[in-house]
Amino acid sequence: MTAMIDCEGLVKIYKTDDLEVVALQGLNLKVDEGELMAIIGNSGSGKSTLLNTLGGLDRPSAGQVKVGPWDLLKITEEELVKYKRETVGFIWQNNARNLLPYLSALENVEMPMMLSGKVDRAYAKQLLEWVGLKERMHNKLHQLSGGEQQRVAIAISLSNRPKLLLADEPTGSVDTATSDLIMGIFRQLNREIGITVVIVTHDLTLAGKVDRVVAIRDGLTSTEFIKRNPNINPDGGEAELPAAGGLQSVHEAYVVVDRAGRLQVPKENLSALNINDKATMEFDGKRIIITPPKSLGG
Ligand SMILES: Nc1ncnc2c1ncn2[C@@H]1O[C@H](COP(=O)(O)OP(=O)(O)OP(=O)(O)O)[C@@H](O)[C@H]1O
Question: What is the pTM of this model?
Fold first, then answer.
């Protein structure tokens, strides 16, 4: 499989006047071409920072971040403009940034095509049909519902035929039915045009609908969830998650171990065992067991 995204030791530091925030602390992530995957994590864990870095909106501070043939650490400003225009499509929860209220849905989709000098009306119409808005394409944006506007935003993000679609909380402000519809669109696009889709979300139901989920904790990838049987739900109904839900019901969880052998132990586990800065680690031939340090005094 060819890698679409390859991050290794990715670091992003935000500097403000008197403060440095290390939002990504040496993150590793590989995404294959044609994957449909999700990234989850608590607020402040670095999800948006990662997505913005992949989308070329934020510059990485150090480490490696490659998307297709592009090396985003070394890319020039000029190349970055081209990269953003041709390689990635971006969808935000709040799509106001993308849309022009007094233009029709169709005109909105054609706008980015116009900016890059390649208007393809037939493709614009095709995109609106894909997102289920064939009948509404001549409506002005402000005449459409929030969910419909979000679908226009998806069509816009695809207008320049990107190879990678990045979606930051794409279903954050829509109801469950629209959320299912949007997820269905992603899956269909992924299957039909082979576009790689990376979704950032804290919605576990949404995450449960993709084959692979990577969890980020404190700016590092910590756990990976891989679907036990990807064929269980080829057409993606809602029936896939049992009511009691959670990712673990359909996915197998793996702790991420980096090249240097480092892994993250959840803070809850450490505090439950009163482990602060040191622990004892034993290998019994089959398992690695981490316990609180044995008292030196006896
Ligand atoms: N422009 C910025 N300047 C300074 N600090 C920032 C900036 N953007 C993000 N941060 C900090 O970086 C860390 C990671 O933020 P990020 O937005 O990536 O998290 P997130 O996982 O997307 O959170 P949320 O789910 O709340 O959006 C946080 O501590 C945040 O305060």
Answer: 0.85
